[in-house]
């Protein structure tokens, strides 16, 4: 596997007590290196303005550059940037395109992008939710511009509002998100399904607080996997946040590391080797980051080895599960 990371990620100084802190990167890298997979290392180049403008407005990019050069500060109540954040953000945005090029060259079968700041909340003209540039959306747009069909699976505990918005009318991008609801940023209800020719290409699982692994596993078996097969993507990109782990301090979903192994295994054979990239998003407990990253990659290597989960369980999560299935069945065979 290809590990894409850069020392500049450590220079993104969010300040004391901020949950999106530099120590996240060594924890994730340790998880990658203890996963048992053979690792190929790659340091990404800085993204060009042209690359950033695949998703972001030029005026916004320039404003972030000047803000960081002036010493930075708070971009919103949650999102901080300092002088070192500019290079970190450029390397983070450049990591996906670099991974695409390396995978096309046959350097590895799957890539894991371990950089910061994360990306799936960053809007075309606004930073939010710890994110400056939308790293996964930039990579997806690059691939779509090359004529590829792209599936994005987002298991971060927070809905990837920007990723959804960027591709809400794009029929060649499938966006599927499992997230806590209601929670930040307040988007991702099950009726948000895409528009026009892209109707049905957004699928949201708005799980209630306290949801455990069984509904997630059922969702991957009953909905995510069959929809992916029918969409027939050329590439799969994963917003791999680990803040849905039960140990995470910022959320209330109750996953274990083994649930990430299960989810990764369920989708790892949808596309051929060399067509999958996982992007680090959230996750703020260092131990959970290590174990969940390792479990993800072990699941990706092993593939779908478990029996199919046919029951989402009971209570409020099961009600949401059935409502998502009903909504999704309007566009896909389940």
Kindly describe this structure.
By secondary structure, the chain is of the alpha/beta class. The protein has one domain: Arginase, Chain A, CATH 3.40.800. It is built from ten helices and ten strands. The strands form two sheets. The chain has an eight-stranded parallel beta sheet, sandwiched between helices. Strands 3-4 form a two-stranded antiparallel sheet. Strand 1, helix 1 and strand 2 form a beta-alpha-beta unit. Helix 1 runs parallel beside helix 9, helix 4 packs parallel to helix 5 and helix 7 runs parallel beside helix 10. The longest helix has 20 residues. It is globular. The model has no long low-confidence stretch (mean pLDDT about 95).
Structure at a glance:
By secondary structure, this protein is an alpha/beta fold.
- Whole-number tally of structural domains: 1
Span between N and C termini? Answer: 32 Å
Q: Let me know the average pLDDT.
A: 97
Q: Rg from C-alpha positions?
A: 18 Å
Low-confidence stretches: none
Percent range for β-strand residues: 5-15%
């Amino acid at each position: 596997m290809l590990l894409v990371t850069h020392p500049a990620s450590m220079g993104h100084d969010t300040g004391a007590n901020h949950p999106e802190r530099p120590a996240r990167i060594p924890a994730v890298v340790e998880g990658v290196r203890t996963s048992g997979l053979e690792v190929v290392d790659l340091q990404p180049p800085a993204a060009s303005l042209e690359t950033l403008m695949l998703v972001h407005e030029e005026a916004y990019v320039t404003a972030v550059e000047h803000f960081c050069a002036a010493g930075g500060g708070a971009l919103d109540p949650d999102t901080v940037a300092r002088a070192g954040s500019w290079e970190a953000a450029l390397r983070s945005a450049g990591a996906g395109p670099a991974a695409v090029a390396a995978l096309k060259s046959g350097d590895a079968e799957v890539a894991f992008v371990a950089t910061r700041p994360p990306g799936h909340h960053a809007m075309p003209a606004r930073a939010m939710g710890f994110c400056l540039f939308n790293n996964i959306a930039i990579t997806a747009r690059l691939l779509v511009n090359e004529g590829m069909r792209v599936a994005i699976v987002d298991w971060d505990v927070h809905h990837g509002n920007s990723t959804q918005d960027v591709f809400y009318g794009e029929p060649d991008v499938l966006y599927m998100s499992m997230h806590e609801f209601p929670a930040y940023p307040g988007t991702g209800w099950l009726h948000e399904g895409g528009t026009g020719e892209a109707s049905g290409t957004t699928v949201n699982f708005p799980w209630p607080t306290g949801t455990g692994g069984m509904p997630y596993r059922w969702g991957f078996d009953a909905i995510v996997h069959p929809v992916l097969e029918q969409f027939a993507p050329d590439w799969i990109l994963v917003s791999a946040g680990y803040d849905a782990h039960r140990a995470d301090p910022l959320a209330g979903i109750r996953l274990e590391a083994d649930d990430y192994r299960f989810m990764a295994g369920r989708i790892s054979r949808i596309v051929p080797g060399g067509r999958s990239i996982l992007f680090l998003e959230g996750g703020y407990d260092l131990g959970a980051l290590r174990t969940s990253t390792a479990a993800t990659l072990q699941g990706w290597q092993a593939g779908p080895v478990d029996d199919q989960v046919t029951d989402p369980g009971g209570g409020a999560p099961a009600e949401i599960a059935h409502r998502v299935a009903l909504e999704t069945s309007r566009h896909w065979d389940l």
